[in-house]
Write a structure and sequence with these properties.
The complex is a heterodimer. Chain A contains 20 helices and 10 strands. By secondary structure, chain A is an alpha/beta fold. In chain B, helix 1 packs antiparallel against helix 4 and helix 3 packs across helix 5. Classes of the chains: A alpha/beta, B mainly alpha.
Amino acid sequence: MNQTVHLLGLNHRTAGVEIREKFALTDCDPLEAGLFPLDDALTEIMVLSTCNRVELVAVGPDLDSGGGAEHADAAESPTARRVLELWAAARGESVADIRPYVYAYSGLDAVNHLFKVASSLDSMVLGEPQILGQLKTAYRKATAHGSTRVILNRLLHKAFSVAKRVRTETAVASSAVSISYAAVELAKRIFGDMGGYSAMLVGAGEMAELAALHLVNAGIDKVYVANRTFARAEELARQFRGEPIVFEEFPRRLVDVDIVISSTGSPSAVIRARDVKDVLKRRKNRPMFFIDIAVPRDIDPDVNGLDNVYLYDIDDLKEVVEENLAQRREEAARAEAIVDSETRAFGHWLKSLDLQPTIVDLLRTGEEIADRELAKTLKRLGNVDDETREALQTMVRAAARKIFHEPICFLKRRAREEASTRRYIDVTRRMFNLDGDEVPPDAHAARRGIGAEDAEGAGSDGACGPGEELDMDLDGGLDGDLAGGGDLDPGAEPKNSGGPFCTGGRAEDAK
Amino acid sequence: MAFVDLLRFCVIALYLLGTATGVAGFLGRRNGLLKTGLWANGAGFAAHTLLLVAALGGGPLPELAPGLSLQMLSWCLLAVYFMLLWRFRLPFISIVAPPLALAAFVWSLSMTAARQAEMPKALVGLFLGLHIGSLFACFGLMAIAAGAGMLFLHLNRKIKGKEKLTGFRKDLPALSTFDRVNHVAVVSGFPLYTLGLISGFVWAKLTWGRVLSWDPKEVVALVIWFVFAFLFHQRLALGWKGRKPARLAVWIFVFILLSLVVINIFVPTHHSFTHSA
């Protein structure tokens, strides 16, 4: 029986906002509510639901052998159909209502789609990173309910590391694509570190508020708020722990202010060039940055002609944002190449999850180690005749093979019991690092030193678990896998099998 | 003097490597290259220091080895470079100081005739320390201020003109940082320059009996001093910032180069690095 990844979902492109609202799964935790019970057709599931998309990633049996099925076929597999039924039922709708808006992928297409979602290549604003956090949360919930096992654990960890690769190797997530953030980036170009500088909002519009929020996050020292309605100024000032100013007062306070964000509804200019000239003299030419997001404009364009003064209006900022977006779109092609190659790599891993390739890999690893050590010894011995060399080689290789004899017998015995095979194969592959995964030194930092047994477990995991900066994820993944799996049979275990197996067995006993 | 020749070769090779990798690393935005450049320059600087120690400690002081003052200029440039790099962490000065230091060093090797100093032995140390030391340290500072000034003017024009920042410009520090470099260079450079001039005049009075001999170099030095004093005053008293001081710093450095290079080569002067007047 072959397990395949299925993915069903809808997003901002396939469904309008009413549809997305109707079929969102955000109001409750769908896994906790038991909306997606696991069974033979549905062995693993994870639910991601945000305001722009719903993605259901499921693992179930693959009846037709070929991967990468057609769009229509992907939705017809028993797993996909079951997920769709459960989804519709959860929202109290019929499958026919939901079907037109849903896309379905299976096999490597599903993997590819998930990697794209994680890397934010499928997002409404290309490259915006929120989706990765949402995906991590969704995965954490799924592991907490024990609804992810070998395949989804590996798939999600890969998705996170693909997203990281895309972020660091391409510029798809670089440079600001919102007007308020573009303004802050410009401020950094002028002032550098924001500490020690202050900003003033003239007029308290929503976009000005957002820009102020970005500035505060960037570490600006003080925010002044001037508004015609003083109560609104006070309210905003409280939000940023700033100082409210009576509107008529503000020109006199400009001396202390480095960044001015103006968004009043005034029909004529509120800040004129000659006023700024005076202000500049009084502040000894310390630079000033004016951001005019009002239409019609609040600030006399001549201000930009003064030395040490920089003025950007809403059109200038829009242009910056447009250019940055265009750059992101160019980078997306490179990002997709990364996603494609990682998808292929995941396909290899899925295939290797069978018994035969794992045995071959195990024996090959043993042989490699034996040959390496033999070479070292021969170098030390100096001149050795061929006969001795051959005898030595036969000996080390035999020793290496014998060491793997019992583990291989164990795996073969487990392979007769359908349910647990994959898990043991996966653990074996990780234990001997057959996939050559790199493990960062800070893996599982959160789990180290909790207890003697845990510390021991963390030590061995630290040498063979995949994933980066994902302590809690892998943590939950492995525990959910071994202890929460529910189909581990303690009686079938050899009495002295070590480590997490014992813990898992005991946990089951205790239940 | 095989050892000295070997050292010279090492210095040139290392500075060349440091300059090439530094400039390439900065413009091509490669951190690895930048780091290589830094190490090469550091190693070259160490060899250079050894060379100077050998030159100053070896022979009798009054006879300045050929090209020694230029080697000291090169050394001062790098000393200032390392200091500013350490203090402000500004990778951009890697495209300013090392190339100039390399040029000064290579030029120094073309000098052959020994310079005759006509002064009491006891005062030579003072002369070297005050006159050459302070002036060259100031030149180093102004070289970097000029580099910062040019980058400031470039970046300022881009930001004012609302143009997109591409390539290495994205890695440039903020405008305020360039202005801070200008401030440091002006505030510490002007007193050094003044000290250098005064010690020169005192020394001239002691050796030749007159303060000013209207040597072309002295005239240019006085012009520079007046421009420098103007900049110092505007910056500290009137609070000049940004474009104007950046431009003045570039001009001062152009004048300094003029007095160092053009006058030395084309105009007879008793300040020549090559032969005595």
